[in-house]
Amino acid sequence: MTLLDGLSLLSWLDIAGLTLLVLCWFGIGWRIEHPMGGPRSVSNMMLAYREDWMREFVTRQPRIFDASILSTLRQGTTFFASSCMIAIGAGLALIANPQPLSDVAGELVNNQSPAILWEIKLLPILLYLVSAFLAFVWAHRQFGYCAVLMASVPNDPENPISYPRAEKAAELNSRAARSFNRGMRSVYYALGATAWLVGAVPLILGALAVTAMIWRREFASHSRALLMREDS
Known about the structure:
Layout: H1 3-7, H2 12-33, H3 42-57, H4 64-96, H5 99-109, H6 115-151, H7 162-193, H8 200-219, H9 222-228
């Protein structure tokens, strides 16, 4: 059975659920990164603190603390990139031999579907994982660029290039963080896409649940309330 034959087996509810999943992914990402006059997300609010960090970096002695923070950020991107690679390999193995998945999922939903249908349902998961992997790798690279730029910032506030270079480092740091956050959202939606293995309705519920979770963490969490609190 070909891929086109498998696609013809999808119901309108399957297509609606998959469309909702993609729209939620794009929509929540756009809203987080673009306040548009509304409430700011935690990710967006953290950008100002990254700028403050680089301004303080100019006069900090010694700079071991800053190096430790940047190293921790890079380790995080490395960990998630490696995890995505392992998950992608496992997904490709299942596509090559979908029978174990077909047996397990078929028992859960009491429905023995053709193998091509299980392969199609694995594709969104893999695509999200690939997107996450690429975002994490790019975040790791940008954190590396930021590290080099930070090393070039003179430890003298009177030097005319100190603060301009610190601003460049802050911008690179923010862009790296944005890529990292995009990777995390792709991982969340990859997990949401696994609900499609059970059925179209679980896929819709999974997409809505993941979106609600991300919305709460970005716009209604205790962490955001803490960041909103004025410094005394």
